[in-house]
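Lecture notes, part 5. Sequence design as translation. It can be helpful to think of inverse folding as translation between two languages: the language of shapes and the language of residues. The source text, in structure tokens, appears below.
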């Protein structure tokens, strides 16, 4: 059908230009011309928000001779425009103004001299968000940890005085013009399909059911580790720093790519001939927040499959304690996003792009489910191996699981804190939106959620709050975490294991991935698990007795011994490029040279480790 083909091509052209500019901008590529991303974003936004095609789509859908594929494709575009169209006369101008303001805010944040004050020399030490976060978890000197925490907290003061509050006001103005209560309500409704009130009814229930658990875990930490464990700059080190240091030799950065590839292959996960570009190492001028974006969505063009082109990034620091662990989490998380968006098979690209009406919660369910595998006892026992070929000890796995168990509620509440903070932010009047009021409101929420004087990761340092695409987004991680536990319970009940289970990928592909955003988050979860979405599994895990946790570790490790190891060449059905900015380090195509690519990249990583 001509209309469907026209829509598909007009969208793809604009989306790809915008996303290629986004990558060049966020990665600090030499070819990037300032302002290009904002220009292409405005052009795409102008197309997606215009009511131009609504009448034509409705007329085409009423035609008797329409094919099934054309009907599905046009219904997808109808839903896409219904969600995105801004037909108020002021809305388009406000949206374009907002893109420009967000670009300036991003540039200002990028220009910030980020770092900490050395407690010994009292001199400023330039650093990055990721490096200071690692310091909080692994540095033994409390003075340095506190300095790093203060360095992170300084981000909040900086953005509050460099345009963030003006952006918040403009976002609210746009949302209210479009008929929503505020910007948070607008974002939730266009991505999840229900209101802010409905969302926070779910979150309020979760907050209530984790309140006692987090207080108990903090009191236990103070009793067993000392009152200093409550200090925000001490918490991560006191509660997991020791196990993170002990586990580091078994989870090296240089071997992360090979472990990721082998593990995905052994779970039957592949990328349907997608082209993947991975930029994993921290550097000056690079976006500090890891992400996955797809410049070219996967879709079926008049019966011919069009593979995706996908980029994802991280900010790992070679040689730093915990960098391998962070790299693995990124590979499984962003790789989970990439697997999801690579495997969509629908007759229009609107089904396979990662923005509204694609559910944030559903997209994050895919990434967080696969990321959860790297903390499983059976996965650690099989894949966590040091340079001498020694497997991680069972006793250390138990210590890691105990850390995770004790503070599962706290982890959930740290995400809740971001959502409640943004809710408070967007519910303030323009007169109330001052740096002092915002800091006071966020501080009160941090104390309530963490049962500490402040959050270990200052909420106002989190980059999601600043960008248009990721603002009012964090609830997606919370809903996804709940869906992850429900999805895991389904697989564990059905098969008994997830690690190296060849059935996982095909089931995800059919139940979760193939249809893109054709269904809602709630419908997808029910389709796979057979149960309505609920917090049941989450609450069960948060309140699970410790002895049951330790027993499950033993059972998991015993069971993996019976599962065959993956011994054939790794074939993820993908063209993969490992890059560092403009530099291509290594690449592979399908199974021909994955191991060679992984080895080349491993050698490059080793060369990036600072020499003593």
């Amino acid at each position: 059908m001509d209309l469907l083909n026209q829509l598909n091509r007009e969208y793809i052209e604009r989306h790809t230009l915008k996303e290629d500019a986004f990558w060049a901008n966020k990665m600090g590529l030499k070819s990037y011309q300032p302002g290009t991303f904002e220009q292409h974003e405005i052009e795409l936004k102008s197309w997606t928000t215009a009511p131009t095609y609504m009448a034509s789509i409705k007329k085409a859908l009423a035609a008797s001779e329409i094919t099934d594929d054309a009907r599905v494709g046009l219904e997808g575009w109808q839903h896409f425009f219904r969600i995105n169209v801004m037909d108020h006369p002021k809305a388009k101008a406000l949206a374009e103004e907002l893109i420009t303001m967000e670009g300036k805010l991003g540039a200002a944040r990028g220009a910030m001299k980020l770092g900490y004050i050395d407690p010994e020399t009292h001199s400023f030490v330039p650093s990055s968000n990721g490096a200071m976060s690692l310091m909080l978890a692994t540095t033994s000197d409390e003075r340095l940890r506190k300095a790093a925490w203060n360095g992170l907290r300084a981000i909040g003061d900086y953005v509050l005085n460099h345009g963030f509050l003006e952006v918040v006001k403009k976002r609210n103005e746009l949302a209210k013009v479009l008929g929503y209560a505020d910007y948070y309500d607008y974002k939730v409704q266009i991505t999840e399909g229900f209101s802010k009130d409905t969302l926070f009814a779910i979150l309020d229930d979760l907050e209530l059911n984790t309140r006692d658990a987090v207080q108990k875990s903090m009191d236990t930490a103070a009793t067993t580790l000392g009152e200093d464990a409550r200090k925000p700059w001490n918490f991560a080190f006191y509660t997991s720093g020791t196990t993170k240091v002990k586990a580091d030799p078994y989870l090296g950065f240089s071997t992360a790519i090979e472990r990721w590839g082998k593990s995905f292959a052994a779970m039957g996960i592949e990328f349907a001939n997608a082209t993947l570009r991975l930029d994993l190492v921290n550097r000056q001028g690079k976006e500090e927040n890891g992400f996955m974006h797809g410049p070219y969505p996967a879709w079926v063009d008049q019966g011919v499959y069009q593979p995706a082109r996908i980029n994802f990034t991280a900010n790992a620091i070679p040689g730093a304690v915990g960098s391998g662990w962070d790299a693995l989490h990124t590979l499984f998380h962003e790789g989970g996003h990439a697997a999801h968006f690579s495997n969509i098979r629908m007759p229009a690209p609107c089904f396979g792009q990662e923005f509204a009406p694609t559910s944030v919660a559903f997209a994050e369910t895919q990434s967080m489910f696969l990321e959860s595998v790297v903390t499983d006892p059976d996965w650690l026992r099989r894949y966590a191996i040091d340079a001498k070929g020694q497997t991680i000890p069972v006793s250390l796995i138990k210590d890691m699981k105990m850390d995770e168990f004790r503070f599962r509620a706290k982890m959930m509440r740290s995400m809740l804190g971001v959502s409640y903070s943004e809710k408070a932010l967007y519910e303030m009047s323009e007169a109330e939106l001052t740096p002092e009021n915002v800091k006071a409101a966020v501080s009160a929420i941090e104390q309530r959620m963490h049962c500490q004087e402040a959050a270990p990761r200052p909420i106002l340092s989190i980059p999601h709050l600043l960008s248009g695409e990721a603002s009012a987004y964090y609830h997606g991680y919370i809903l996804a975490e709940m869906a992850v536990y429900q999805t895991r319970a389904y697989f564990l009940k059905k098969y008994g294991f997830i690690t190296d289970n060849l059935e996982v990928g095909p089931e995800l592909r059919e139940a979760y991935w193939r249809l893109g955003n054709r269904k809602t988050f709630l419908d997808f979860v029910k389709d796979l698990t057979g149960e309505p979405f609920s917090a049941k599994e989450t609450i069960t895990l948060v309140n699970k007795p410790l002895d049951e946790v330790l027993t499950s570790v033993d059972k998991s490790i015993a069971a993996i011994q019976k599962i065959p190891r993956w011994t054939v060449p790794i074939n993820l059905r993908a063209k993969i490029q490992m890059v560092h900015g403009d530099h291509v380090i290594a690449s592979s195509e399908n199974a021909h040279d994955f191991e060679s690519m992984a080895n080349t990249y491993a050698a490059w990583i080793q060369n990036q480790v600072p020499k003593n």
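The translated text above is only one of many valid answers, since several sequences can fold into similar shapes. The longest helix spans residues 196-225.
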